């Protein structure tokens, strides 16, 4: 959480930093701040609120060195004082930080005993003063002082620091939170950011620091990277960025979320492109092929993930078990990591994460590796921590997802996982070649069907109008669409703040039915063929208690149409792939309800896109 940006070179740092912060606002947006070096001094501006509030507050915008920060509060409430950057007591050092220093209280007391004073409640202010204390006590350069200080802290961090007495240098370091360095032409300028989006128009050359690494960035020189703990020099791995500016802009849509919902036909296509080879009748995925033995010898597959990615894992459980007849367990990464799970070298663990930075998922991966499991990553962000930490993996290729509520990441995760399940099914012989070919064909039809579904935009908007004042909402689904019910409920609550719950439809009578009255909208996914009659009975039960029914039905279904208050038609498809379709109107419904309630759709309160803290 929190976004960091920085610049050193000959351009005006303010524009680059502000632009960058706006792109990083998805990471946290309860306060923002920046520091600029100008005229031998530093000017810090910070404020509770968004980057737009920071722009309004900033008076001095000159300087060719600076750092910026957009915050998702951990220590200390969101207010002006707790906002970053933080300066040291002498006023010489300045820092922006993403992460948590767990032992900050002990360090703070020690520093207070030595006469340091603190203005904020943050762990970050403690860290910058610790760096200052180390610098003063040891008479070392800033880089060394940062290194010594970081060896004393417990926690997670991505930091950027500079010293106003040495304005040709920025020090950055990471442990558990991402940081990228953009390299300007001839090393004449450098960019620093939590991801590459802030500097994409300036350079395509970037270095992603690994955990426990720090970099000394000096204008006119190559970046020097060291391991923070053992002090060894590390070779800089310069990567060519593939992202382009268009991908991270709204492209005419009112919100990133809407843009990303509409990108799904293309994103799903990109996910199977080059992997699903229908003419040859095969699926080719290098990460799976290279490790086929591990998959085939596994006693079971354990999936670890959080939030929406966990929902994709639940869909995968149904698909893997059906196609490849392999037992699957799906675990919240946050639970898995702390419960001494029974995992051995016979296990395959699949970690799913859009950002590739989620702290709990990362910790679950490390634990699974320690226990000898083979860990396979399904990530969207290329080069992310999870992508690097796993033994092998498959990217979703959804393109940057900026809206905080996950949309295209979910459908592309399901696509990748379905491809893997199909591939394993063939390798294990649990699926005949004709059925396999039929599924390949079906999967290729999905982008067109999603496109068609997106045309019902206005119909969903009309339904949204009727329910925007609801305070509660139930989502019901069965089989492959039970996880979609969970996902639909999560989307609604996170962006519109309406309380919503998802249930397997048959569970309704075990409790939730008590909630149904004439003010309760119930969204029922009634597309499945396997449990169709049973779901229809559930709809009758809701109807007789005067609940309002919004039903997702297969095109042409007249039975449910007669009972439901509203219907949304879903193109017919093979049931295992139906989540790729049923999800779409649920995303649109929450989007329109949230917009009509004047909620900030792309940046819902209290949330952040990338959860790099526990
Ligand atoms: C919900 C949402 C979150 C994320 C979760 C995991 O819309 O976006 O629930 O799915 O924080 O994030 P990743 O997939 O980046 O590990």
Describe this structure in words.
- With 614 residues, the chain is of the alpha/beta class.
- Helix content is 36%, strand content 24%.
- A hairpin with a 5-residue loop joins strand 13 (224-227) and strand 14 (233-234).
- Helix 7 runs parallel beside helix 14 (408-428).
- The mean pLDDT is 94.
- It binds fructose -6-phosphate.
Largest sheet: 8 strands, antiparallel
- Are there runs of 5+ residues with pLDDT below 50, and where? none
Report the bound ligands by name, code or SMILES: fructose -6-phosphate
Helix content: 25-40%
Q: DSSP helix count?
A: 20
Strand order of the largest sheet: 3-2-4-1-10-9-11-15
Radius of gyration, in Å, reads 25 Å
Distance between the termini: 11 Å
Q: Strand tally, please?
A: 27
Query: How large a portion of the residues is in β-strands, by DSSP E?
Result: 15-25%
Mean pLDDT: 94
Shape: globular
- Structural class by sheet pairing and helices: alpha/beta
Outline of the structure:
The chain is α/β, with parallel strands linked by helices. Helix content is 36%, strand content 24%.
Distinctive features:
single chain, alpha/beta, eight-stranded antiparallel β-sheet, seven-stranded antiparallel β-sheet, 20 helices, globular, binds fructose -6-phosphate
